[in-house]
Amino acid sequence: MSNDQLTIPIFPLNGALLLPNGNLPLNIFEDRYLDMVNYSLSKNKYIGMAQFQNQKENILYNTGCIGKITNFVETDDNRYLINLFGVKKFNIIEEIKHEKSFRIFNVKIDNNYDSDNFNENNFDRNSLINKIKFFFKKNNISVNMDELQTIENKQLISTLSMICPFEINEKQMLLESKNINELNEALLALLEFNNKSDKSRTIN
After folding, report:
1. What is the domain partition of the chain in residue ranges?
2. Would you state the pLDDT for residue 117?
3. What's this model's pTM, rounded to 2 decimal places?
4. Which end of the chain has fewer beta carbons closer than 10 Å to its terminal beta carbon, N or C?
5. How far is CA 71 from CA 3, 26, 37, 41, 42, in A?
6. Domain 5-110 has CATH 2.30.130.40
7. What phi and psi, each to the nearest 5 degrees, are found at residue 67?
8. Phi then psi dihedrals of residue 52, to 5 deg
9. Calpha distance 151→110 (Å, rounded)
């Protein structure tokens, strides 16, 4: 992906966070989004993931993440089970008028997100693990902690950011982090805030 701009279909889905280098499994069953997957497979296999800023007015947040279909299975009941691998973040330029049932946009690729220069010296893995254990227990979320413990630090931060059932605006805040260090700080802040809150969260 070398160009600064790209024309891609966008799948608007609140609560579904895709980050660069992350993997997002999706169950596609609506006709328009089945058409979207077929369109993507016939092109470059790219689909943009974005959340609604105002769902009633069909307005998306400006920032999303480009995913590439790395695996797909067509089921007997005419669904697609796909995996999207996070490639780059993007900013919406404009929506393209067309006759298809799904939405297509011109987007500007964000090449500034830095997932490499991670400050290992300032990363407190034990603190993150303790906060996430409390968060999962508080919200009755079953997660294989032994498996999480085996994930390297940067991937752990991204994985937890993607799977935690935060609010839409909280997910967007994580997505708009400028680098992996800022993402870690935002994740820790959200966990601390939610762990002190009386409100419980569930994974859909």
Report:
1. 5-110, 120-196
2. 86
3. 0.91
4. C
5. 24, 10, 12, 11, 14
6. yes
7. -115, 145
8. -80, 130
9. 26
DSSP letters, 167-181, are: -HHHHHHHHT-SBHH
Name the one residue in this structure whose structure tokens are 């601390």: 192
The DSSP letter of residue 198 is: S
Structure tokens at 139: 């919200």
175, 113 contact by CB (below 8 A): no
Residue 116's pLDDT is 82
Do the strands 46-50 and 103-110 form a parallel or antiparallel pair, or are they unpaired?
A: unpaired
Tell me 121's DSSP state: G
Residue 200's pLDDT is 65
First to last CA, the chain: 32
pLDDT of residue 115: 82
Do 90 and 61 contact (CB within 8 A), yes or no? Answer: no
- Rounded CA-CA distance 38/131 in Å is 41
Q: What is the model's pLDDT at position 2? A: 57
DSSP alpha helix (H) spans, 27-144: 31-42, 125-138
Six token digits for residue 172: 């967007």
Rounded to 5°, the CA angle 197-202-204 comes to 150
What 3-state DSSP class applies to 178?
coil
Q: Is 95 helix (H, G, I), strand (E, B) or coil?
A: strand
Can you tell me the distance from the alpha carbon of 27 to that of 114, in angstroms, rounded to the nearest whole number?
30
Query: Mean pLDDT in runs of 10 for the chain (204 residues)?
Result: 87 97 96 98 98 96 98 97 97 96 97 87 94 95 91 95 96 97 97 86 59
> What is the pLDDT, as a whole number, of residue 201?
64
